[in-house]
Design a protein that fits this description.
It contains nine helices and six strands, in the order βαβαβαβαααβαβαα. The protein is α/β, with parallel strands linked by helices and 215 residues long. A six-stranded parallel β-sheet has the order 1-4-3-2-5-6, with helices on both faces. Helix 6 packs across helix 7. The two termini are 27 Å apart. It binds pantoate.
């Protein structure tokens, strides 16, 4: 596995692979890797010649009351997991790399992002859309893989990425823990009690949605 930190290194790696007719699958993450991410890598490896993963804790998607500094960042463990799963290129950009230029330019979604969780997290979805847009421009993948843990994020990205990144196909998977809870690094924030009751959401929904599939 090759680990790089600069945009130029990612672009030269991808350009070289594409020149040789190889397809690129991309898994963007904020790290704290878990089995959900691993199933995204597996899917990418089955469908592409090359799998690129990014680990970047994006500061602009943290709301004013959310603690960026205490976000869980087990980077050495993450690198080892990515290596075990045979990721080909791991992109670990710094804040300077992602935000030093064009700081005044951002991607804003004006409707869906204003309701539900977006109403309580001002700027969160602009941060997500902006970073996903930057990453897609840098990596230029053939296929993008993401988990379905956040329904609102999924709909928002899906909406504009279909228009602005129409050449990149997008695959959504719904990896779950054994008890049905959607795999997410945010589960690290749940204390024992909350972690125990969280799968109720899935169990309740699953009762009325027989088609909902665990993968
Ligand atoms: O869902 C996530 O892990 C993040 O929001 C993403 C898409 C990697 C952007 O930082």
């Amino acid at each position: 596995m090759k680990i790089v930190q600069t945009i130029a290194e990612v672009q030269s790696f991808v350009r070289e692979k594409k020149k040789n007719g190889q397809s690129i699958g991309f898994v963007p993450t904020m790290g704290a890797l878990h089995k959900g991410h691993m199933s995204l890598i597996d899917a990418s490896k089955q469908e592409n010649n090359v799998t690129v993963m990014s680990i970047y804790v994006n500061p602009t998607q943290f709301g004013p009351k959310e603690d960026l500094a205490s976000y869980f960042r087990p980077i050495e463990k993450d690198k080892a997991m990515a290596r075990d799963y045979a990721v080909d290129l791991l992109f670990l950009p710094s804040d300077e790399t992602m935000y030093s230029r064009l700081q005044s330019v951002a991607v804003t979604e004006k409707h869906l992002s204003q309701v539900l969780c977006g109403a309580y997290r001002p700027g969160h979805f602009d941060g997500v859309c902006t970073i996903v847009s930057k990453l897609l421009h840098i990596v230029n993948p053939d296929r993008l893989y993401s988990g379905m843990k956040d329904a609102q994020q999924l709909r928002i990205i899906e909406k504009w990425s279909k228009i602005y990144f129409s050449l990149c196909k997008w695959f959504q998977l719904q990896p779950r823990e054994d008890d049905g809870l959607a795999c997410s690094s945010c589960n690290n924030y749940l204390d024992t009690n909350r972690r125990e009751i969280a799968p109720v959401l899935f169990q309740h929904r699953n009762k009325d949605n027989k088609h909902l599939k665990m993968v």
